[in-house]
């Protein structure tokens, strides 16, 4: 574009406008100087196309309209965009899972478990017929504790891992706190016997993947045991109750069965005089995990006393005797794996990420364990000179 030239001295406005109109008409009739100069149109790659987000509407729809599925102008626009830019199946499934479920829409089917900390029911969403597990936590907690529980469960709702039971929602109904969880139709692993090391390695790898994920998010389970390891019909093993035990620990005795089963507790957690009074929750989870895996292999509780024994007998067996070991008939890889978990000194126990790279896991899960390993740390932005 050429700059506008000022009118010549003495020229009147009318003459200026007439001259500009005549010059513009002459420019319009002038042929193009270089007809071969053209701008190439950008080529659109369909593989990189993503649906654009909707602009914010002037009036946000109410929550009741969203949950009741009422349609309007905004919904029609959204449906049109979805027809042009269909969402991927994974994104659509994730969006469906994130949809809020009202407590009034849940239909109780039957009780599937109970303990001193609460009762778990199987419930069904009336609209979608999707099954869930509803855990009712006992006790009338003080207001400050209730607010803390709500904050903790809000954090747990963001947990998303294929080997951790999904926490969907939380309700405060009738003075009781109720947590809506993913339903696992295969039940728990309590009482199972897995003598085949190949099968046990697959099971162990899944549990380790979920435990490593929780530890990376700074979440300590505090109650790893066979009854908190669930399985579904697709043979997926998932960790359950990873938040409730930690929440209730603030108001209950740490050795109470609703907070942590003493049979699977680490020695330094039972006897606070050990390890100079310091307790590492992550190392404590590894001890409980190792006891559980050894119990699966043996088909029984690995200590000399029963897990249902009295508190004094269990404390002596766990705190004063040597850690249990895998039998000599087991492979050297499995014996070493159990030894890496059941070290009396917490600092000598391997982390979940390290155990995922142990030969017992790598040998039997050559294709799977690579997918379960945590992503490598990002490279530094600037190299040291």
Automatic annotation (TrEMBL):
Biased composition (Low complexity): 15-26, 37-51
Entry keyword set: ATP-binding, Hypersensitive response, Kinase, Nucleotide-binding, Phosphoprotein, Plant defense, Serine/threonine-protein kinase, Transferase
Reaction catalyzed: L-tyrosyl-[protein] + ATP = O-phospho-L-tyrosyl-[protein] + ADP + H(+); L-seryl-[protein] + ATP = O-phospho-L-seryl-[protein] + ADP + H(+); L-threonyl-[protein] + ATP = O-phospho-L-threonyl-[protein] + ADP + H(+)
InterPro entries cross-referenced by the UniProt entry: Kinase-like_dom_sf, Prot_kinase_dom, Protein_kinase_ATP_BS, Ser/Thr_kinase_AS, Ser_Thr_kinase
GO MF annotation terms: ATP binding; MAP kinase kinase activity; protein serine/threonine kinase activity
EC assignment: 2.7.12.2
Boundaries of every Protein kinase domain copy: 106-361
Comp. bias regions, Polar residues: 63-81
Bias (Pro residues) ranges: 1-11
Residue segments, region Disordered: 1-81
One Pfam family it belongs to: Pkinase
A biological process from GO: plant-type hypersensitive response
Annotated binding of ATP, by residue: 135
Family: Belongs to the protein kinase superfamily. STE Ser/Thr protein kinase family. MAP kinase kinase subfamily.
Name recorded for this polypeptide: mitogen-activated protein kinase kinase
């Amino acid at each position: 574009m050429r700059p506008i030239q000022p009118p010549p001295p003495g020229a009147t406005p009318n003459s200026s406008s007439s001259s500009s109109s005549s010059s513009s008409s002459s420019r319009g009739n002038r042929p193009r100087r270089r007809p071969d100069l053209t701008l190439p149109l950008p080529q659109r790659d369909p593989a990189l196309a993503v649906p654009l987000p909707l602009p914010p509407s002037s009036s946000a729809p109410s929550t009741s309209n969203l949950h009741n599925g009422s349609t309007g102008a905004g919904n029609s626009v959204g449906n049109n965009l979805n027809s042009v830019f269909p969402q991927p199946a994974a994104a659509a499934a994730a969006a469906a899972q994130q949809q809020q479920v009202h407590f009034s829409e849940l239909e109780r089917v039957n009780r599937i478990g109970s303990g001193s900390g609460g009762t778990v029911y199987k419930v069904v969403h009336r609209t979608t017929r999707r099954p869930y597990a509803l855990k009712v936590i006992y006790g009338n907690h003080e207001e400050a504790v209730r607010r803390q529980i709500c904050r903790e469960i809000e954090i747990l709702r963001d947990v998303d891992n294929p080997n951790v039971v999904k926490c969907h929602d939380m309700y405060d109904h009738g003075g009781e706190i109720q947590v809506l969880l993913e339903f696992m139709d295969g039940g728990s692993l309590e009482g199972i016997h897995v003598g085949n090391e190949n099968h046990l390695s697959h099971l162990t790898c899944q549990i380790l993947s979920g435990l490593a994920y929780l530890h990376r998010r700074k979440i300590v389970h505090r109650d790893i045991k066979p009854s908190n390891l669930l399985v579904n019909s697709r043979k997926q093993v998932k960790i359950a109750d990873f938040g409730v035990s930690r929440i209730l620990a603030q108001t209950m005795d740490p050795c109470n069965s609703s907070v942590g089963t003493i049979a699977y507790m680490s020695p330094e957690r039972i006897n606070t005089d050990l390890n100079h009074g310091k307790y590492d929750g992550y190392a404590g989870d590894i001890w409980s995990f190792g006891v559980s895996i050894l119990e699966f292999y043996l088909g029984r509780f690995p200590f000399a006393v029963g897990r249902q024994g009295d508190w004094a007998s269990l404390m002596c067996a766990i705190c004063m005797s040597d850690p249990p070991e895998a039998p000599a008939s087991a492979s050297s890889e499995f014996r070493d794996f159990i030894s890496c978990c059941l070290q009396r000194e917490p600092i000598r126990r391997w982390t979940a990420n390290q155990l995922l790279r142990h030969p017992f896991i790598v040998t039997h899960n050559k294709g799977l364990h690579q997918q379960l390993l945590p992503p490598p740390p990002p490279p530094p932005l600037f190299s040291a000179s």
